Amino acid sequence: MKDIYVGDARLHVEDQGAGPPLLLVHGFPLDHSMWKHQIRQFAGKYQVIAPDLRGFGGSDIPHETVSMDDFADDLVTLLDGLHVEKAVFCGLSMGGYIGFRFAERYPERLTGLILCDTRAVPDSAEAAAGRETTAQMVLTAGMAQLSQTMLQKLFAPATLKANTDEVVAMREVMENAHPEGVAAALRGMAIRPDSTALLSHIKVPTLVIVGEHDAISPPDEMETIAKAIPGAEFLQVPAAGHMAPLEQPEPVNEAIAQFLEAHSPAR
Ligand code: MLT
Questions:
Q1: Rounded to whole angstroms, how far apart are CA atoms 71 and 86?
Q2: Which of 83, 85, 134, 176 has a Cα at 20 to 30 A from 124?
Q3: Which tens digits make up the pLDDT trace of 29-61?
Q4: Ligand 1, from 189, 210, 214: best to mutate by most atoms within 8 Å of Cβ?
C-alpha cells in the first residue's frame, strides 16, 4: 500500500503490478480489500489500482459531505499522481455511482467501464432522509448497528449462512469504519444525481455485472442499465448477492479477464 495526496487528503492505495491500468473502486461502507480476488488475479498482467476512498480504510477522514463528484475528482487526481492517463474503471455499488460521475466528467480518462451491482437512479426523498438518519446514528452510536443491517443486505443468504471468510472480513471492515467518513458518504449518496440520461451517451466499452440475489441493485434493474448503454455486455452471476466479485470471484474474474483482453489487452 502507498499514500497518495489528492489535494488536502491522503488516500491509502493498493498499486500493484504493471501493464494497462485497472482502477477498482469499492462500495459503501467498505475499503479496497473487497477486491482481494481481483487484485490477486489481475496484478500479474495489469497495473491494479485499488484505493481506499476518502473517509474509508486507511485514508483521511472528511467532515460533512463527500459527493460522488468529489470522489470522482479524487480518483482523477489519484490517476494523475500515478502518471496514469487512462484506466478501465471498475466500481461496485457506490463505486458505480462514482463511475457514472467519472464517465460524465472525465470520459477521456476511460479505456472501459465495469459496473458491478450498482444503480443509475438517484435516492427517493424517503431514502435520502433515511441516509441522514443513519448518518446521525453512526455519528452518535458508532458502526455496530449499521454493520449488522448492511451485512444482511450485502451477501446472498447462502453466503451469509456459510459465514465465509469474506463475510467475516467485511463485517470487520464495517465495524472498524470511521463514523465521520461513513456519514459524509451517506450524505453524498443522498444528493447524487440521476445518471439514467447519461447511459446512452457512454461511449467506452462497458461490462455490467450483477449477483442473481442482489437485494440492493436487483438483476432486472442492472439489465436495464446494460441495455441502455450502447454495446454493453451483461453478466448475471449465480449464487451471489450484492458482493458478486467477492462472493463468486471465478465467473466474475473470467468475465473481467475477457473484457480486459478485448478492450485493454496486456502486451
Ligand atoms: C454500496 O454497496 O455501496 C451501498 O449499498 C450503496 C448504497 O447504499 O446505495
A1: 17
A2: 176
A3: 999 999 999 999 999 999 999 999 999 999 999
A4: 189
